[in-house]
């Protein structure tokens, strides 16, 4: 029940004896190897191509910034003032290797993009201001047409600003292994535009001190137009092009075979990988390593049925191979009944789970009847007669947790979920449900169904995934491609299939043509 | 050939005797029937009165026993071997025609042209 109590900083000393606590810790240490850090959660996904350094220099204009800002602090504060047990140590070391190091190179590309954007926004204003500042006296006076252009320039700049904020100034969600081709293209384009405009301006306007101010204003307005068009191009390339579905991706988790199908548009492999991972966190049930294998009792039964006795006086070295060969031959000849045992074992397990579930449901229902929302209107009438103690949700949750604790613990053990739910988390959830007037069934929904991985994450650190692919990851998706997204304990295998071309025909049906007759007509040949 | 309920049905009939032909294990007559009291009479292409639920001949195998005997498509079968066929279900009619122990079926059939023929032959002679 309280596997992670020391980790969560909630120093809970159970009333159990010291020996049982030690036993539990030993068991947890053993289990911590299998416990994935899917429990600890993250904000950003880092996809790393095999053998590549973590970063790409030009990944974004501010979008791919990985906010790992919390990682160094959370690891340290994970250890509370209590003593650090061995399990904490293993967990910390796993965290360190799991989380990505904070590198300054990561922020190079957002900074670059930001600088470029700033320059391109300032440029039209500079174009307008410089003549005024430098050779104001010699400029042709420019009345109404210029003012009209000023207004249009101002509004276009405003729109540019707002749409830049809306489209590009968003916290990045992933770091890609190679640079994002479209973004780089757009950055290069913007740079080229602005540079060529400055070049022209420098040569034709600043040098000869051009006096036609209206022309200069028109030039600045054309730059703003060009920037708006580049932004349109960015919108289409980055946001719109991949919206029309073109491929169907089949994503299979290799450990337990859970699969899903997703429709995506034209994307590069790395972008498709990010998209798949987004869906993975909310669609796939959480990876529970405890549920995977056949119970050992079934698998090892075959081998343990035979014992080999050594009747001669030979040396043991060449006997071992003889022994194993004999055992293998004997087991091959023996009739294999393990499927039978598997069937009965599974039926037994299911029966046990159902029984415990029934007990849990009854216990929770009963516990919820002990508590009721306190109405303030009745306070005046009820307080002189029955002074009831008024509790806040936390206390109420703790009060009704006790009767259902045992049933909950047994159920979680039966479904092997006990590592995902600590006592603290259960009380928190109970408090949440009480606050929002949920029924016992709504409270139990979280434990009866294995939820998506996102439910078990606390978003503090980045997630490290490795993209394994035979083709370069900036290549566009094509039929028959297969790539893997690997994590430490499991991996997702993604297969690409194109969506079929649809030939839609048309048939007009006159609404008056719907007529029916009784069909009781038969013809028999004699 | 409509009937008035409660009144006896009168019709001009032709007696046709068909010898069953043995084909393998079956005795076949070489025609198909349609109709019956459990069928939809409106579908019948041969009947004059679309509420007539009698048994009609819908198809004749050319060269078969029925064709040889003179049965024609569109005939309404009134009796088979003495059994009435005007108020039977389709399946009952089939059974009556395909009894295994009978080699010969004697049908009473009626058709429009028979009525016409009789009328014509009687028409010139006004009744006294």
TrEMBL record, chain A:
The chain crosses the membrane at residues 107-129, 149-168, 180-201, 216-238. Residues 15-33 have a biased composition (Basic residues). Its main location: membrane. It comes from the Eukaryota. The keyword Phosphoprotein does not apply. InterPro entries: VANGL. Coiled coil: none annotated. Pfam families: Strabismus. Residues 34-43, 58-68 have a biased composition (Basic and acidic residues). The keyword Cell membrane applies. Residues 1-14 have a biased composition (Low complexity). Residues 1-73 are annotated as: Disordered. Belongs to the Vang family. This is Vang-like protein. It comes from Amphiprion ocellaris. The lineage of its organism: Eukaryota, Metazoa, Chordata, Craniata, Vertebrata. The gene is VANGL2.
Automatic annotation (TrEMBL), chain B:
This is Tax1-binding protein 3. It comes from Amphiprion percula (Orange clownfish). The keyword Acyltransferase does not apply. GO terms for cellular component: basolateral plasma membrane; cell junction; cytoplasm; nucleus. It is a peripheral membrane protein. Keywords: Acetylation, Cell membrane, Cytoplasm, Membrane, Nucleus, Phosphoprotein, Wnt signaling pathway. It comes from the Eukaryota. One of its GO terms (biological process) is regulation of signal transduction. Its main location: membrane. The keyword Membrane applies. One of its GO terms (molecular function) is protein kinase binding. Residues 15-112 form the PDZ domain.
